[in-house]
Specification:
The protein is mainly alpha-helical. It is built from 4 helices and 2 strands. One of its GO terms (cellular component) is heterotrimeric G-protein complex.
Amino acid sequence: MTLAPNHKKTVSVGNRLSEATPNIIITGLFIFAFIIGLSDTAVMDMMVSTLQQQRAVTEQLRREAAIKRIPVSVAVADIVRYIDDHEHEDCLLVGFSSQKVNPFREKSSCTVL
């Protein structure tokens, strides 16, 4: 990955503009690698790995942004309608047909033989 010496990328941050210089970041990585004793190829591998992680995050964010959203009021109305349509099947509302099918019944005490 090669970058032009004076290549600057302008990034919008709120109402302010800040300049991010990729060369400074790359230089910082090489200095960090030199301090901890990594080779140049190890640094390049770290940069490629970081780039792959950033691309994966970007793709995930794009997928999440593409999800169809609905207002909460519509979702709540759907939930209420579902509950009204299925309340006759809800054993906690209408009761159980017999005690044997009730998973919440009192368990019988143990007897010792």
